[in-house]
Design goal:
Strand order of the largest sheet: 2-1-3-5-6-4
Radius of gyration: 19 Å
Helix content: 25-40%
Number of strands: 12
Shape: elongated
Structural class: alpha/beta
Length: 249
């Protein structure tokens, strides 16, 4: 009788019943015959509970990390990849054979790979709505694509403008508008970032990192003005496959 090697993977986050990752990896394991591999949600109320997850979960080989722990998980890790250290956010953790935790960021890779096919010569600058962990991966990808960007925050900061500053001129100067906030995620599907949607044109890309619902109010309103729209599903698939390679290398 052949012994099946048990490998456990999972998602670390808060209020993550809706999560894409568990369904995606469970289907992957079944369809690609990864016998012995399982994927589960580790839904914790505070990041301080994270060491207990590691301590009490045997055979754990890797984790994805989602809102709101992409930044606060970092002090609990033994090592960061070069990119994760530069970005300042982690969405993938590899657990080594010696039990060490190494953090990676595959969000930026997923975002970059999904945005690239949409880019035209006139897409010169990007506006990133939000300044949380997800926005950092977006910014890193834009740096690699040589696309200048500006952050938008609820309050003006040293490196961000506030929403009240966005007007017709802003839309003339920024042709890519990216929602990196959770505003509009199911079940709050009627919510949307407070920007002047009437200034979108067919020269704009509206990109929403949200994938549930598939078409958020942000995307619907931009599409009504002729903008090209893209949700976060492809980004998630690309980053998940990148995470899988990291866990298995």
């Amino acid at each position: 009788m052949v012994d099946i090697v048990r490998k456990r993977f999972g998602l670390l986050g808060r209020n993550i019943n809706y999560s894409f990752s568990k369904g995606y990896f469970t289907d992957k394991f079944n369809n690609e015959n990864f016998t012995g591999c399982t994927y589960e949600n580790f839904d914790i109320p505070e990041i301080s509970s994270f060491p207990e997850v590691i301590k009490n979960t045997s055979d754990l080989k890797g984790l994805n990390v989602t809102i709101p722990y992409k930044e606060t998980v970092i002090p609990f890790l033994d090592k960061l990849s070069k990119n994760a250290a530069q970005i300042g956010a982690v969405n993938t953790i590899k657990i080594t054979k010696k039990g060490k935790l190494k953090g990676y960021n595959t969000d930026y890779y997923g975002f970059k790979k999904s945005l690239q096919p949409l880019l035209q010569p006139h897409h010169k600058k990007a506006l990133i709505l939000g300044t949380g962990g997800a926005s950092k991966g977006v910014a890193f990808a834009l740096d690699e694509l040589d696309i200048p960007y500006t952050f938008v925050s609820r309050e003006a900061k040293e490196n961000a403008i506030d929403y009240d500053r966005i007007n017709a001129t802003t839309f003339d100067n920024y042709q890519i508008i990216i929602n990196s906030t959770p505003v509009g995620t199911s079940p709050n599907v009627d919510a949307f970032p407070l920007i002047p949607y009437e200034f979108f044109t067919d020269k704009h890309i509206a990109y929403d990192l949200i994938y549930n619902p598939a078409e958020t109010q942000f995307l619907k309103k931009a599409k009504q003005q002729g903008a090209q729209i893209k949700n976060g599903l492809d980004m998630l698939i690309f980053q998940a496959e990148k995470a899988w390679k990291i866990w298995n290398k």
